[in-house]
Amino acid sequence: QVQLVESGGGLVQAGGPLRLSCTQSGRTFGIYVMGWFRQAPGKERELVTAISWSGGNTVYADSVKGRFTISRDNAKNTVYLQMNSLKPEDTAVYYCAADYTGRPTAVHRFASEYDYWGQGTQVTVSS
């Protein structure tokens, strides 16, 4: 079994930065794709970004390109989301997700492709 725990959420002013972390525990040996999704009130959960196990492949939502950066430290079983130039429309609950693929360069774009999810962390951007 895999457990994911997010941290780093909170309240930030527009234009400011915030860094989220997601630490994986339990079954950590193996090759996992990691992703960040978000869900705002009344909206569907959407992909923010995802990263391959190798770290060499990433995907970003158009709305966050150039502002957000995903990275991972496999030795620490942790994935990070650095968010800069935050906007009020970035306000949402952010979820970390993982999928065991066995393929080091694979990246998943869709929520249905992920088997494991964290409990979510709230990010609120004030204008």
Task: Characterize the structure shown.
With 127 residues, the protein is an all-beta fold. It is 0% helix and 51% strand. It has no helices and 11 strands. The strands form 2 sheets. Strands 2, 4, 5, 6, 9, 10 and 11 form a 7-stranded mixed beta sheet that branches. A hairpin with a 6-residue loop joins β5 and β6 (58-60). The chain is globular. The model has no long low-confidence stretch (mean pLDDT 95).
Quick gist of this model?
The protein is mainly β and 127 residues long. Helices cover 0% and strands 51% of the residues.
How are the secondary structure elements laid out?
Layout lengths: L1 E6 L2 E4 L4 E9 L5 E8 L6 E6 L6 E3 L7 E6 L4 E6 L8 E9 L15 E2 L3 E6 L1
Parallel strand pairs: 2-11
Antiparallel strand pairs: 1-3, 3-8, 4-5, 4-9, 5-6, 7-8, 9-10, 9-11
End-to-end gap: 40 Å
Estimated share of beta-strand residues: over 45%
Shape, per Cα inertia axes: globular
Number of strands: 11
| Average residue-wise pLDDT | 95
Structural Rg: 14 Å
Features:
127 residues; mainly beta; seven-stranded mixed sheet; four-stranded antiparallel sheet; globular
